[in-house]
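no rush on this but wanted to send it before i forget. what follows is a protein written twice so to speak, once as letters and once as structure tokens for the fold. mainly i need to know what kind of three dimensional shape the backbone takes. thanks a lot i owe you, the record is right below.
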Amino acid sequence: MAMTAAPEPRRRNARANRERILAVAQQELGKNPDATIEEIAQATGVVRRTVFGHFPGRPALLEAVAEEVSQSLREAVERAGTPTDPPERALARFVLAIWPVGDRYRMLIGLARRDLGAERVSEVLAPARETVTAILERGQSYGAFHSNVPAPVLSSALEALSLSLLESVNSGAWQDDGTATAIAALTAAGVPVGRAEAELRELSTLLASRSTEVADVPSTPETG
């Protein structure tokens, strides 16, 4: 008797449900780090049993969320520029790259208070924090950033500043696409305001130019 293959539509539906649960969990936990499985299930539009079918409990769901955030942050760090960038540009690139995942970043820090633990959260955030610290150390050695505060401490201060500005955007008190936050980070690191604003204008022009170049590259025709 021929073996019956597992129904692919069912597997696709299961994967879609899992991805949807994780996406909604990030949103709900961003609003309320104490959100329950029941609340996340309701926001997702599924019954609690469906959530438990993918995640046996809240700790398993939170760990999956942490891994999703970790992947997003790793990808953002990879997009954040090259070691050959001047330190001012490298820091600006980093802030712009991280900004789209800022809510997830903020949510993860909120979960550190009780659920995931500070050690696990630090592990997830380590690549981002190490990148910023390295940029600041290089900038301090070149005289681009002030050096009266050690780079790791300054990195923590810039992280807190960015998270505070993100909260202001979420509350409607401020509008930003990441540009103003990048300028704020540069000035907090010791770059004069005019120089920081000029750096962001130059970077914006550079990024727009590269986007146009990528869009203009013709696709390679397939050969039969």
Observations:
- The longest helix spans residues 118-142.
- The mean pLDDT is 86.
- The chain is about 70% helix and 0% strand.
